[in-house]
Fold this protein.
Amino acid sequence: MDSSPLDELVDAFVNLEEDKVLNLVEGLLKEGGDPTDVLEACRRATTVIGERFERGEYFLSELVYAGEIFNRVMEAALPKVTREVKPIGTIVLGTVQGDIHDIGKNIFKAFSQAAGFEVIDLGVDVPPERFVKAVMEHKPNIVGMSGLLTLAIESMKKTVEG
Ligand code: B12
């Protein structure tokens, strides 16, 4: 049975075949494919990559490379979700202290902007004091805290208490 281009994309990403991934993404987007489906396929692939990392089949270098490939995919896909809209609110966003994962945060940011939010992005490894300062300054409707590590939960608690 032939696999769908999105399944092919997941396989190529899991195997870290950068050129194949980028060609498939370019083809899918050119044919009018939904950028959300493309990003979701890549997200699924990173879950498998994470499992391989846990089993000791992939190492830190593979996680780094997966991050780089994802960033290239986002460069192609995110402009397709961005559009000019009337501002509907403000979000202060950041990856909490101790965590530097930002791919999911950046996707959330792009979709929030496309929905009409102004996003104040504080970056990664953001200490509670910087969140507090940004909240005082921008008075946002929403505060978005990102974190993928288990230890990020502690940082989030501290930030909320801050
Ligand atoms: C790529 C990656 C990296 C890259 C990150 C590059 C980058 N610029 O982000 C690098 C190499 C830097 C990295 C480093 C590490 N990583 Co890492 N990494 C991953 C990996 C493979 C993919 C993560 C990813 O971005 N996926 C793509 C995104 C799109 O998927 P997603 O996160 O599910 O997306 C959604 C959410 O993020 C959500 N979201 C995110 N932010 C926000 C905010 C708001 C407000 C909302 C509403 C939603 C939202 O929206 C997204 C869209 O649906 C995961 C594996 C996995 N299972 O996730 C491990 C993983 C997260 N890493 C892990 C580990 C252990 C590490 C390291 C400690 C490894 C090491 N020994 O050094 C370091 C930690 C560094 C640090 N201090 O943060 C573990 C975490 C385990 C744990 N329970 O704590 C994982 C789960 C791998 C594993 N299975 O072991 N990593």
Q: What stands out?
A: The two ends are 55 Å apart (CA to CA). Residues 5-80 form a domain with the Methyltransferase, Methionine Synthase (B12-binding Domains); Chain A, domain 1 fold (CATH 1.10.1240.10).
